[in-house]
Amino acid sequence: VMRWIYVFSLSSVLFYVCLQRFWTGSGINRNKGMVENLQRYGVISSKKVAEVMETIDRALFVPAGTPAYVDSPMQIGYNATISAPHMHAACLQLLEENLQPGMHVLDVGSGTGYLTACFAIMVGPEGRAVGVEHIPELVTGAIKNVKKSAAAPLLKDGSLSLHVGDGRLGWPEFAPYDAIHVGAAASEIPQPLIDQLKPGGRMVIPVGNIFQDLKVVEKKLDGSFTVRSETSVRYVPLTSKEAQLRGF
Question: Around Cβ 106, how many Cβ atoms within 10 Å?
């Protein structure tokens, strides 16, 4: 087990390759089995993250006919992807302290709505989970997905919302945010996202072009911030709608 954890700490890309091979052979066909595997191999250590990922069934948020519980990113159309389950778990754990009931969270590049739904469950009806995606068709699909999930009541009461917009600009209406997650790689950290991060808040964002690192941004109470690298990753670029649609 320690060997698997060590590989993950070095590179999420290597970890993804190993887990995909294992999962393909084991034939996982249920959401709980996916979460149990993430726990078994040390990806999930948080009880709360495990509960949330069991509550939000990934099968509701991937294209029909695709193997929902394999640890692999998947194409969702419009040159966009949904991340592999191990990356969702890693980001949820990195942000967990800033996803307490009543807190505000922004999900940039919300895609099919999966992680936004997980965030909404964590912050609860007294909090606010906001997803921003610049492809209107993906937002429409994400709303349909959420309505089929355990997060549906939160969408109905307005504590979870999904919007069409340029995520690089954030979503000022519900700022400041205790947590910000960015699901695509920026060449540099967008200033509007730093501005909308609450003092004491945390942002998780992939940064880089060919070589990317998952960065953790901590905003101090005086407004200054620190940045550290968590692991090597590979995401699609955080770019304009037009660039994405033409394949970057």
Answer: 29
DSSP structural state of residue 11: B
Contacts of 47 by beta carbon, 8 Å cutoff, 6+ apart:
none
Distances (CA, A) of 204 to 47, 94, 193: 20, 8, 11
Annotated active-site residue 12? The verdict is no
Using one digit for the tens of pLDDT, what is the confidence trace for 30-65? 999 999 999 998 999 999 999 999 999 999 999 998
**Chain centre to alpha carbon of residue 8:** 17
List CB contacts of 37: < 8 A, sequence separation 6 or more.
19, 22, 23, 26, 28, 71
Q: Which residue is it, tokens 């040390």?
A: 42
Q: What is the overall mean pLDDT for the chain?
A: 89
The catalytically annotated residue of 12, 26, 72, 83 is 83
Let me know if 52 is exposed, middle or buried by CB neighbors in 10 A (0-12, 13-18, 19+).
buried
In the structure, what pLDDT confidence band is assigned to residue 14 with cuts at 50, 70 and 90? Answer: very low
Q: What are the phi and psi torsion angles at 217 (to 5°)? A: -105, 125
CB 70, CB 86: distance < 8 Å: no
Please compute the mean of the pLDDT values over residues 105-128 and round it to a whole number. 98
The structure's pTM equals 0.89
Beta-strand pair 74-77/80-82: antiparallel
Residue 26 has pLDDT above 80, yes or no: no
Instruction: Tell me the residue ranges of DSSP E strands in 26-171.
Output: 74-77, 80-82, 104-108, 128-133, 160-164
